[in-house]
């Protein structure tokens, strides 16, 4: 499934200046931007920049960013699930994974993550997709935030709710390995019942579906 990527932009106040939330942006645009040194949750900023350029240029890939001037201080990615992941077994071309969301530490507390997700769902094309994200507590910055696992989970869940993603049960072993881990899902208004049933069969692949 391929849609024309509709560009959106909005501005939000932050301290004494303005942060721009925009996207989806191209790999060429990402190449022209600098990356905040605090964006290290997944890999070094320069390596993550290269990874995001690759995602942005995929037919289904979407990168939305938060900018302080010409510096990326936050981003969210959408792409098809990794072929090695359980979710790709659904073989749905209308299933996207919110693969990563990251905000530089000094910008946290301004709800930039929520703004990024709200902007992501402004595109009407998202109503054609099932969008998932998998949350694992070992990816969370518990030390930097000073939050407990459960308080951090509440923050993550509230942020995902801003993009319309809701908790859904699954028997996925990795998610089920700790009660704080979770699967969150947004099913677009135009997603057909057959796609939902295929997705549900993967959510509970350890069960017999009748």
From TrEMBL:
GO molecular function: acetoin dehydrogenase (NAD+) activity; acyltransferase activity, transferring groups other than amino-acyl groups
Positions of the N-acetyltransferase domain: 45-119
Alphabetical list of CDD domains matching this protein: NAT_SF
Entry-linked Pfam families: Acetyltransf_1
Listed GO biological process terms: acetoin catabolic process
Record protein name field: Acetoin utilization protein AcuA
């Amino acid at each position: 499934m391929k849609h024309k990527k509709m560009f959106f932009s909005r501005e939000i106040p932050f301290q004494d200046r303005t942060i721009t939330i925009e996207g989806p942006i191209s790999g060429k645009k990402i190449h022209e931007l600098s990356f905040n040194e605090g964006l290290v949750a997944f890999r070094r900023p320069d390596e993550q920049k290269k990874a995001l350029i690759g995602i942005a240029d995929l037919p289904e890939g979407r990168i939305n960013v938060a900018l302080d001037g010409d510096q990326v201080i936050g981003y969210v990615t959408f792409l098809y699930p990794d072929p090695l992941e359980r979710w790709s077994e659904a073989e749905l071309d209308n299933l996207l994974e919110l693969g990563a969301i990251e905000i530089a530490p000094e910008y946290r507390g301004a709800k930039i993550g929520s703004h990024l997700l709200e902007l992501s769902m402004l595109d009407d094309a998202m109503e054609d997709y099932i969008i998932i994200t998998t949350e694992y507590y070992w990816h969370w910055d518990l030390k930097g935030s000073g939050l407990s696992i459960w308080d951090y989970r509440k923050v993550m869940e509230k942020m995902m709710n801003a993009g319309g993603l809701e908790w859904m049960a699954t028997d996925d072993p990795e998610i089920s390995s700790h009660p704080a881990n979770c699967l969150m899902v947004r099913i677009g208004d135009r997603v057909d019942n057959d796609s939902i049933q295929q997705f549900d069969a993967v959510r509970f692949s350890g069960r017999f579906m009748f």
